[in-house]
UniProtKB/TrEMBL annotation:
InterPro entries assigned to the protein according to its UniProt record, in alphabetical order: LexA/Signal_pep-like_sf (IPR036286), Pept_S26A_signal_pept_1 (IPR000223), Pept_S26A_signal_pept_1_CS (IPR019758), Peptidase_S26 (IPR019533)
GO molecular function list: serine-type endopeptidase activity; signal peptidase activity
Subcellular location, record wording: Cell membrane; Membrane
Organism listed in the record: Mycolicibacterium peregrinum
Span of domain Peptidase S26: 3-180
SUPFAM superfamilies in the cross-refs: LexA/Signal peptidase
Keywords: Hydrolase, Protease
Protein name: Signal peptidase I
Gene: lepB
Length: 199
């Protein structure tokens, strides 16, 4: 029963560090995924989720089942964008993201708020999610697979095209990551952090 509704999932990459550890030279985290968490609700901003990647996200030669783990940044009906002079915002409000660690990335988010190209605004369609990895410079996420209008690409502005392409369907969410089960040194519950709840 426990394994049916709360299976474990091995973190395959460094995309969610430091929250979840996964790399070729370390002991990857194994997390407990609550598959019942959204039976009577939907993913919320800040939730760390496991989902089946959209077909357009499939990587050639990828192992496993194309199940990915990312953090929900924006939900259906919200508008997400990033500008170098402002940072990452949802509905115009700057996000508070204590889970970001400059040590895991190739840039300091204080100096380079977008940690990549500027993007958006993206109006997230109902029933879909905008997701990103905590290790922003090492994560292939909604920013990577979004669609961009050709004139904007030349200026470095991404994700200005069809918003459904870079987003994830709520129907494809497998469950919510509740805890790290292994290795024992990292065992514990995952803290709930809503980046939209800041001042």
């Amino acid at each position: 029963m426990v394994m049916t509704f709360a299976p474990t999932y091995e973190i395959p990459s460094e995309a969610m560090e430091p929250t979840l550890q996964g790399c070729s030279v370390c002991e990857n985290d194994h997390v407990v995924v609550d598959k019942l968490s959204y039976r009577f609700g939907t993913p919320q901003p800040g939730d760390v989720i496991v989902f089946t990647a959209p077909t357009a996200w499939y990587m050639p030669g990828a192992t496993g089942e194309n199940d990915l783990v990312k953090r929900v940044i924006a939900v259906g009906g919200q508008t997400v964008e990033c500008r170098a002079d402002v940072g990452l915002t949802v509905n115009g409000k700057l996000l508070t993201e204590p889970y970001l660690d400059p040590a895991t990335m190739e840039a300091d988010p204080k100096a380079f708020p977008c940690l990549g190209n500027e993007f958006g605004p993206v109006d997230v369609p109902d029933g879909r999610l905008w997701v990103m990895g905590d290790n922003r410079t090492h994560s292939a996420d909604s920013r990577t697979y979004c669609r961009s209008a050709v004139p904007d690409i030349a200026s470095g502005l991404m994700c200005t095209g069809d918003p459904s392409v870079g987003t994830v369907s709520v129907a494809d969410v497998i469950g919510k990551v509740r805890a790290i089960a292994f290795p024992s040194a990292r065992r514990g519950l995952l803290a709930a952090v809503n980046p939209q709840s800041g001042p």
